[in-house]
Amino acid sequence: MRIVFCGTPQFAVPSLKYLLTQTDFEIVSVYTQPDRPRGRGQEISFSAVKEVAVAAGLEVQQPAKVRAPEVEEHLRKLAPDAMVIIAYGQIIPARLLPIPRLGWTNLHASLLPKYRGAAPIQWAIANGETVTGNTTMRIDAGMDTGEMLLQEELRIGAEETTPELARRLAEMGAPLMAKTLRGLAQGELTGRVQNPAEATMAPMLKREDGRIEWARTAAEIFNRMRGFAPWPGAYTEFRGQTCHLRGKPVAGTAVGEPGTILVEKDLINAVCGGGSRLEITHVKQEGRREISAGEFVRGARLKNGEQFGN
Questions:
Q1: Distance (Å, rounded) from C-alpha 180 to C-alpha 185?
Q2: How far apart are CA 286 and CA 300, in angstroms?
Q3: Cα separation of 69 and 28, whole Å?
Q4: DSSP state of 217
Q5: How far apart are CA 73 and CA 190, in angstroms?
Q6: Which of 5, 44, 102, 137 is most buried, most CB within 10 Å of its CB?
Q7: The three-state (H, E, C) secondary structure of 96-144, written as one string
Q8: In the chain, where are the structural domains located?
Q9: 39 pLDDT exceeds 80?
Q10: pLDDT for residue 310 is more than 80
Q11: How do 261-264 and 104-108 pair as beta strands?
């Protein structure tokens, strides 16, 4: 089966590597986002998918705009049997969809129709879900609205963060993609239409999503800390500065306004909604390195009754 693979971040890498090991698939080209400056030095670097593709000696295409006429010309010349698209980062124009005879197959990191959009893993954790999974689907003109092909569930760990869950979903998704492609080629898979009434959205994260709302319960804040790691993180204001926090819910109740700080030796608890308590384990003040709660207590000379938040 002649395949064109479209993907950019690390999440797409396990599927590309897996398909390369299967003798019934041939990756004839890889599409990925253009090289971009990254890190403090703003050095130009390859995407995670490009690094794998180059190491494997594959043809790599990096159009700034996939809707450009030369992209359509190139794909028609390749005449692929299937297009695999995983976190590519560009919207595919409708005129390209009929080119592969088996269509465009996407791996989406949720149990569709829940969590359509750019950040399904982050929002599933942030909303306190205990089960998620992968869905392979046909690409259509909508945002994650195409027919579903195969699904596989995965339990979310009680303290699992977005990077940890993303790694597990990516590894689990690789054989699921291969199974989907074989099922399509053999005519054994029939797409299932999504029920729009069951759809939920997982929009791209904004910095503001990381602002801690202390009126939420400690469990809700903890879920958002896990889901929004590493960006935008979970942050609040303290003494006029922005502080990024890490922590976990603890048993017991507390009296005070949400955001009130309770200090006991080297321990910091914050009062949250409903009188729940969040133990703060790490603090990173603006422009400084992350430190433990104990270091923060001593360095800031923290006092009982001070306040996180506005």
A1: 9
A2: 13
A3: 20
A4: -
A5: 30
A6: 5
A7: HCCCCCCCEEEEECCCCCCCECCCHHHHHHHCCCCEEEEEEEECCCCCC
A8: 2-198, 207-300
A9: no
A10: no
A11: unpaired
The amino acid that residue 32 corresponds to is T
CA 176 to chain centre: 18
The pTM (predicted TM-score) of the whole model is 0.96
CATH for the stretch 207-300: 3.10.25.10
Residue 304 has a CB neighbour count (10 Å cut-off) of 10
Mean per-residue pLDDT of the chain? 97
| 2-198: CATH, from 3.30.70.260, 3.40.50.12500, 3.40.50.170, 3.40.720.10 | 3.40.50.170
Main-chain phi, psi angles of 136, to 5 degrees: -95, 140
Q: In sequence order, what are the residues at sequence separation of 6 or more whose Cβ sits closer than 8 angstroms to the Cβ of residue 159?
A: 226, 248
Provide the token pair at 133: 């999974």
Structure tokens at 205: 């994260």
- How does residue 43 score in pLDDT terms, banded at 50, 70 and 90? confident
pLDDT (tens digit per residue) in 224-235: 999 999 999 999
Same fold, 2-198 and 207-300: no
Q: Is 24 helix (H, G, I), strand (E, B) or coil?
A: coil
**Averaged pLDDT, 144-152:** 97
Name beta bridge partners: 37.
44
Among 160, 150, 157, 109, which Cα is nearest to 133's? Answer: 109
Burial of 257 (0-12, 13-18, 19+ CB in 10 A): exposed
Single-letter residue type at 266: D
> How far apart, in whole angstroms, are the C-alpha atoms of residue 268 and residue 266?
7
End-to-end C-alpha distance for the chain, whole angstroms: 58
Yes or no: say if 12 and 49 are a contact pair by the CB < 8 Å rule.
yes
